[in-house]
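User: Run a structure prediction on this.
Assistant: Running it now.
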Amino acid sequence: MSAFTDISAALDARTNSLSLPTAWENVTFTPTTGTLYIRPTLIPAYTEQAGLGLNGLDEHAGIYQIDIIASGSTGKGEATIKADAIADHFKRGLVLTYNGVNVRLSKTSRGLGKREEAWYVIPIFITYQSFITPR
C-alpha cells in the first residue's frame, strides 16, 4: 500500500469518469481554443497521528482542486454549469476506494472565478481525508 499514490489514484479515477479534456499534473497538455477543460491538482496537508501506539492510524487529509477552464470571451455560464456538475460528482460523504485505501470526501466548495489570459477559471475545492496504517 502506498498512501500518497493510492489517495491520488482514487481521486484521479473519479475525475477521469467525468470524461472531460483534462490537463493532468506533469503531463503535456495543449488546450483547444474555445474548448472547456479541467486541471486537477492534489494539495495534501501534513499527515497527522490519529491513533495511539504502533497500530494507531494516520490521518491523511488535503484538498483536491479541480480548475474548470473555459473560454474567456463567452461569459461565465458554461464554466458555472460545469462547476455545479463537478460539485455534484464529488458529493460530501462519498467514499472513493483504490487499492484498499478509502478516501472520504468531507466537503466541496467553489472558489472565485477569474480571468487568466484568454481563459476564465473557476476552482472547485474538494476536501478529503483518509485513515491509513502508519509506516
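The mean pLDDT is 93.
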